[in-house]
Amino acid sequence: xxxxxxxxxxxxxxxxxxxxxxxxxxxxxxxxxxxxxxxxxxxxxxxxxxxxxxxxxxxxxxxxxxxxxxxxxxxxxxxxxxxxxxxxxxxxxxxxxxxxxxxxxxxxxxxxxxxxxxxxxxxxxxxxxxxxxxxxxxxxxxxxxxxxxxxxxxxxxxxxxxxxxxxxxxxxxxxxxxxxxxxxxxxxxxxxxxxxxxxxxxxxxxxxxxxxxxxxxxxxxxxxxxxxxxxxxxxxxxxxxxxxxxxxxxxxxxxxxxxxxxxxxxxxxxxxxxxxxxxxxxxxxxxxxxxxxxxxxxxxxxxxxxxxxxxxxxxxxxxxxxxxxxxxxxxxxxxxxxxxxxxxxxxxxxxxxxx
Length: 355
Fold this sequence. Notes:
This protein has 355 residues and is of the alpha/beta class. It has two domains: 87-115; 117-354, Rossmann fold. The chain contains twelve helices and eight strands. The protein has an eight-stranded mixed β-sheet with strand order 1-8-7-2-6-3-5-4, with helices on both faces.
């Protein structure tokens, strides 16, 4: 009996020991399970990442295998200096542009220019002879009545009018002494040129008379400081008969040179064209031709009125005065027409106002 109890006690202790072991195992199983689940999750994540990387590697390998080269080397590269920009091409284009652009601008300016500039350009517009080129004069250089010619002086302006005078010697035939001055419009210097040519002739000892025949707008009297209100040619043209004494009564001294006289326009008539067409005018010119060595007629601009064409019938030579940078180019078309039709006798040109 006693031995049985002893065995029962031993079994009981074994049971308690096993119970304690199982209880400890059960308590540790939760943490182990947690570790196993965490390990499983990490395995799944790393497995998916590994598969993704494998897939990308295969895709990259396929892409690299499918890409072909865009070019291929034909020749080995050679070094030949600077390629761009090409200096010869740049300099060539720049030089051509530097020549062509100014040429185009000058050509365009020439096409747009409508006034003459010099004798060379004038020679392209007309075949009439240019007997003198008068330079532009300052007001200080001009004397009374705008006279710049002086006796016994060798200034360039004196030589210009001497050249004009010499050319007229060759153009006037024996017995011819009547010179007509006209222009296309006012302000071109025809009165200035006529007055200085008259003084140039007077310095030779020739008797010269300067007639102001712009009877619509008299200017010669104002130029010489005289009045056109009384003495002049219009009273002679309005009279019934003209005598030498009547003509001489209307003539006034110039006050510039003793050999130079003036016959002014006189009072402005109501019918300028009609009185110039009368026979009285022919008689007056005939008397002046006999009394003087040279008769210089300062007429109205031929481009404005027809008076000059009437007067031109009694002249031996006509001088058309133009002015640089003032006279329009189209005016010479009309001048050429007058010359071709003989409406201006023995025409020639003086260019005035050259710079």
